[in-house]
Write a structure and sequence with these properties.
- Strands 3, 4, 5, 6, 7 and 11 form a six-stranded antiparallel beta sheet that branches. A four-stranded antiparallel beta sheet has the order 2-1-12-13, with helices on one face. Strands 8-9-10 form a three-stranded antiparallel beta sheet.
- The chain has twelve helices and 13 strands.
- Helix content is about 35%, strand content about 20%.
- The chain folds into two domains: about 120 residues, no CATH class; about 200 residues, no CATH class.
- With about 425 residues, it is of the alpha+beta class.
């Protein structure tokens, strides 16, 4: 029996005994925590399914692609375990993120871009947790409409700006802290499709922050009152709703306006770091302690000059905090407004570029998966890990829930 035949037997046996297939995990990951300490008994079926997908990501439970080296002197078998492809998974989505960022690069104009963060007061946390989808939508709408209202004002811009908004629900310590990160162009498109730069002003941001805060608070609370009146949103039993609104109106709602980006390239760098992550990335987890059932991770303390610190949580508390940032099923966490809104976006941008006497965008070029892998990870999917030649051939695709597909059956050696 030669090596190729032995490898085929290994695959057949693996289908009946998944323990033969192992996945070497990084030193400390969210998946490791969930595998060891998953104790959250959520009544939300969607949350349960997400956590399960994260636990089985890149393991035999999801099946594999099997590759065989075509070099007769090697015939090595390599298993590539399937990803869960869940957007909450820290191990998935890197290549899709790259593709999304490249698509956004096609839409950025050679102008200034500004960054602003809209937050909610903590008094609303329990209400938002009970009505996530509705109130996340309201948060998007109130923040975007605030920016659009000021952009259309002749005192500041008098045009339709381009806006990219991203929902984050977490703080550095994994606490529940819903807020919107928005990127807005320093100019916009007029009614006759000309580009108009924002007026020079004395403000650090494009528009006066205090005035924006008042408009944003008013838009959000007026809409929230209607939702409660229509019983679309129902406060917890015993809540004194008039007193709650009185508190919310009296409080100053915080908007953080940051210095403008250096240019379109800085915007892309920001998007690459923050748009596609959820709650915590694996590199922030420092250790998992089996002796006292704790997880230690790094966080940035904004109240102490952004110093890097370490926080240790009990495993169940870590999972609880992580689980509360799982988005509602099908919820869109990245949205565009103004001239970047979806309908006819490409045409509008090309018209502006033409008037700026700049070349128009011709669309994205599809980059092969193998090239993406080399660019991001420095690996070649076709390279045999044993003989180091580019001789791997797809042999079999195996899914536990359906029949395996034999792509390249081995030659009969008699």
């Amino acid at each position: 029996m030669n090596k190729a035949t032995r490898n085929i037997i290994k695959i057949i046996n693996a289908e009946n005994d998944v323990t033969m297939l192992s996945y070497t995990m990084p030193k400390a990951t969210v998946q490791q925590v969930l595998l060891k300490y998953h104790t959250v008994s959520s009544s939300n079926i969607h949350v349960q399914k997400v956590l399960h997908r994260l636990r089985v990501c890149r393991t035999a439970a999801l099946g594999y692609h099997a590759y065989r080296c075509s070099n007769d002197e090697c015939s090595e078998i390599r298993y590539q375990y399937h990803s869960c492809r869940d957007r909450h998974c820290p191990m998935c989505g890197a290549i899709k993120k790259d593709e999304w960022i490249e698509a956004r690069m096609q839409e950025l104009l050679p102008v200034k871009y500004y960054h602003v963060v809209f937050t909610l007061t903590h008094e609303l946390n329990s209400l938002v947790l009970g009505h996530r989808k509705i109130l996340y939508n309201l948060l998007f709408d109130a923040s975007a409409q605030t920016l659009i209202t000021f952009a259309k004002d002749e005192k500041y811009m008098g045009a339709v700006a381009g806006i990219i908004s991203v929902l984050h629900t977490w703080g550095q310590q994994l606490s529940f802290h819903p807020h919107i990160h928005s990127i807005i162009s320093g100019g916009g498109i007029t009614d006759n499709n000309n580009w108009k730069d924002a007026r020079k002003n004395i403000y650090r941001f494009l528009f006066p922050i205090k005035a924006m805060s008042v408009v944003y608070k008013t838009k959000f609370l007026q809409a929230l009152k209607e939702l409660i009146a229509n019983k679309t949103v129902i406060p917890k039993a015993g809540t004194d709703t008039p007193a709650l609104f009185n508190t919310l109106y009296q409080k100053e709602w915080v908007i953080y306006a940051k210095a403008p980006f250096g240019g379109p390239q800085s915007v892309i760098e920001y998007l690459g770091r923050y748009t596609h992550k959820v709650a915590i990335s694996n590199h922030r987890i420092s250790s998992i302690n089996d002796e006292d059932d704790t997880v230690t991770f790094a966080y940035k303390d904004y109240a102490d000059n952004n110093k890097q610190k370490q926080m240790t949580l009990g495993n169940s508390e870590f999972v609880r905090r992580f689980a509360q940032h799982i988005l509602p099923k099908g919820f869109t966490k990245i949205r565009t407004y103004g001239y970047l809104s979806n309908r006819n976006r490409f045409r509008r941008i090309n018209e502006v570029l033409k008037k700026m006497k700049l070349p128009g965008h011709k669309g994205l070029v599809k980059v092969p998966f193998q090239l993406r892998m080399r660019e991001r990870y420095g690996t070649d999917p076709k390279e045999c890990p044993c003989c180091k030649q580019k001789t791997l051939q797809l042999l079999k695709i195996f899914y536990p829930w359906k029949k395996a597909e034999l792509v390249h059956p081995p030659a009969d050696d008699g």
